[in-house]
Amino acid sequence: MSLNTITAAEAMAAPDGYDTIVDARSPSEFAEDRLPGAVNWPVLDDAERAEVGTIYTQVSTFEARKRGAAIVSRNIARIIDEQVATQGRDWRPLIYCWRGGQRSGSLAIVLAQIGFRTRQLQGGYKAFRAVVRNDLAELPLRFSWRVLGGRTGSGKTRLLGALAAEGAQVLDLEALAAHRGSVLGGLPGQPQPTQKHFETRLWQVLRGFKAEQPVYVESESRRIGQLQLPDSLLASLRGSTTPVMVELAQAARVRLLREDYAFFMEDVATLCERLQALTELRGKASVARWQAQAHAGDWDTLLGELTQQHYDPLYDHALKATHATHTPHHLALPDAAPATLAAAARELMAR
Fold first, then answer.
1. DSSP readout, 200-223?
2. Of 22, 44, 97, 248, which residue is the catalytic one?
3. pLDDT digits over 197-229, tens only?
4. One domain, residues 112 and 193
5. Catalytic (active site) residue 97
6. What's residue 193's pLDDT?
7. Do 168 and 189 have their domain in common?
8. What is the mean pLDDT of residues 290-314?
9. How many domains does the chain fold into?
10. Do residues 102 and 171 share a domain?
11. Does 103 reside within a domain?
12. Is the pLDDT of residue 297 over 70?
């Protein structure tokens, strides 16, 4: 039968036109990246896909298709029993696989034969990925960026949250990347997404912004943990006019960092392991001293030395490279209390 197909651009232009977006690929493919909101109903799991692929390369295409058809048929029967049986007549699924071929086609045919209003994504995930790449090259150019700079612990991320609470458009890159962008930046229990999924998250947020309103974002280097910012976005941020440099007194910075990195105080071993990565840059003696301070629970001294001897020199060097052509506006905060940040957010938005 002829399948009812739709292009990736058409599908993304009306993402609410489907009740369920079904990714028919294997779990590992799904984990790497997927369409926003998709659920994984694999017609071949990872082991089954490897088995069929081995038969394809070592025996023949015909034998691989026979074996694949048997496995896919059983899996589709399970999907119908476990996922589809409760769906009503008007259920509208969008089905895709890697290239919009046999895996999604097999499931789409069965669902359409049942009578569901089924669509298959032309070109599959590969076509969607092309849309994401192309859009990420163009989308950052649409917006007027308001870049928040400032040394580690100055409250930039919290200020972004206050701006969002006041109704501003905010791009929180560290939240999307699940990383705070430094050697201590990994978040407990939150592995970073893959590069592709980070870009999909970023693409999804950018598509929701209005071009006529500014977008507030924290100044970042090219990399956030293991992830890399798209070239177009990085160039747009570095070319933005008049960055805002957020400033907080040293004692207040240490208090803020104690709050943000409180989890390290309960896992000193992990902290010391992270600090070990600074040996080449800061020397064995400094790292050993910081590790001793951590074991002793001397957090104020440790965080004070880390900011002044490690983070601040790195930031001052990076600032010269990233915003050398702009004179920044300075925003001095007396503290990082919610009321202070809310007032600062309103001040920035009023400009």
1. HHHHHHHHTS-TTS-EEEE---SE
2. 97
3. 999 999 999 999 999 999 999 998 899 999 999
4. no
5. yes
6. 97
7. yes
8. 93
9. 2
10. no
11. yes
12. yes
